[in-house]
Specification:
By secondary structure, the protein is mostly helical. It folds into 2 domains: 193 residues, Growth Hormone, Chain: A (Up-down Bundle); 196 residues, MFS general substrate transporter like domains (Growth Hormone, Chain: A, Up-down Bundle), CATH 1.20.1250. The chain is 82% helix and 0% strand. The longest helix has 31 residues.
């Protein structure tokens, strides 16, 4: 059985894991460049922030239509078209003569990320058996983490060479390469067999509302806490007047620990159930959010950052695993589209939550609020995540 499971995971390397790593690296190489490029076109700080935010706007706009597209053309072609269309979006962004065209290119990139992400998520939910699904999705989550780690490093190296325009064309090449990798894999059926009945996403949302209003909400809380961690550590370093180079080192070391743990999470979930990862992850993330405002120097921030990474790493791939487990066999694409829209929408609200907190009660209280959300999410997970979600429960 163990040998069969390893074979199943190896078979996902070229069709899913490697293209995801390459695509994620290209996307994350561009993200740090967007505000600077917007300012080069004459945007002020507020407008540059809006342009950078268009990538999330594109993702949110595409989450629901993506399920219909994948239902019509299949997961493989969905990933293929999304990778090549993302390359087009990058070319538009890099060659943009003004802010309007640049915003269009960034929005296209965000929409393509939604299609690419839903296609690979649905592919694993459809084709990987429950017994090894958590490891598969944890590995997929690991590809995101490695891409998020490598992308900015690549950007820094290219900028150090003196020409920032190279960032766009390297990211363009990576997206094309991801598409080529997908193209080399065997063809799948045109559209999901489960989607041939063509359910509407709204119909599936209403039918599966009990799942979405419990574990969907808890997963959204986890998305908020994870995003607050990514945004919050640099903000807190700024608040403590920590040297930017030192802050970057702290965040990088913490990210390395996060990356190192992603496969362990899948093993825990497959062997002892999803609850064994969900409850500790959300509880520990909540505690570390409470602790962050108590730090007063770089050392304190380093230890809390490492604890955050440990807590987050224990739940690598958790949101995707829960979505795949809960997705009904007759409408996986539609359910996952609704599920991912909740997650992406929650992610998009995190920055405003911290901004409002900073402007009113203070950034530290914002972290306490996010920590409370995480603890509440842990309670929901503990109540509603079965030890093992079997196919009969769908």
């Amino acid at each position: 059985m163990a040998k069969t499971n390893r074979k199943l995971l190896r078979e996902l390397v070229v069709p899913v894991f490697l293209p995801s790593l390459v695509f994620s690296t290209g996307e994350n190489a561009l993200i740090p460049m967007i505000p600077a490029s917007a300012q080069a076109h004459g945007a002020n700080l507020a407008m540059a922030s809006i342009i950078a935010g268009m990538i999330m706007v594109g993702t949110l706009l595409a989450d629901i239509p993506a399920s219909k597209l994948i239902g019509l053309i299949g997961e493989r072609r969905g990933m293929l078209y999304a990778a090549f269309a993302a390359a087009v979006g990058l070319a538009i962004t890099g060659l943009a003569p003004n802010l309007w065209v640049m915003a269009l290119g960034v929005t296209i990139l965000g929409a393509c990320a939604a299609v690419f992400g839903l296609a690979r998520h649905t592919y694993i939910a459809e084709n990987v058996p429950y017994e090894v699904r958590a490891r598969a999705l944890s590995l997929l989550g690991g590809m995101f983490r490695v891409g998020a780690f490598l992308g900015p490093l690549l950007t820094g190296a290219l900028i150090g060479m003196g020409d920032i325009n190279w960032v766009y064309w390297v990211a363009f090449t990576l997206c094309v390469a991801a598409g080529v990798l997908v193209f080399t894999t065997k063809k799948d059926a045109t559209g999901l067999a489960s989607n041939q009945k063509r359910h509407s996403t709204w119909h599936i949302t209403k039918r599966e509302w009990n799942k979405l209003s419990t574990l969907g909400v808890a997963s959204s809380f986890l998305a908020i806490v994870r995003t607050a961690r990514i945004i919050g550590l640099p903000l807190w370093a700024l608040y403590l007047h920590i040297n930017p180079g030192t802050a970057a080192l702290i965040i990088g070391v913490a990210a390395g620990l996060d990356v190192a743990l992603f496969y362990t999470s899948g093993q825990v979930m497959d062997r002892w159930g999803r609850r064994a990862a969900a409850v500790p992850t959300m509880t520990l993330l909540g505690i570390t959010m409470f602790l962050l405002p108590l730090t007063h120097d770089a050392w304190g921030m380093l230890w809390v950052g490492l604890a955050m990474s440990l807590a987050n790493g224990l739940g690598s791939g958790l949101i995707m695993v829960i979505g795949a487990d809960l997705a009904p066999a007759d409408a996986r694409g539609e359910f996952l589209a609704a599920f991912r829209l909740m997650i992406d929408g929650s992610t998009a609200t995190t920055a405003p939550i911290l901004s409002i907190a900073t402007a009113t009660v203070g950034l530290g209280f914002g972290f306490v609020f996010v920590g409370a959300i995480s603890i509440f999410g842990a309670l929901i997970m503990n109540r509603h995540v079965p030890r093992f979600i079997t196919h009969t429960r769908k």
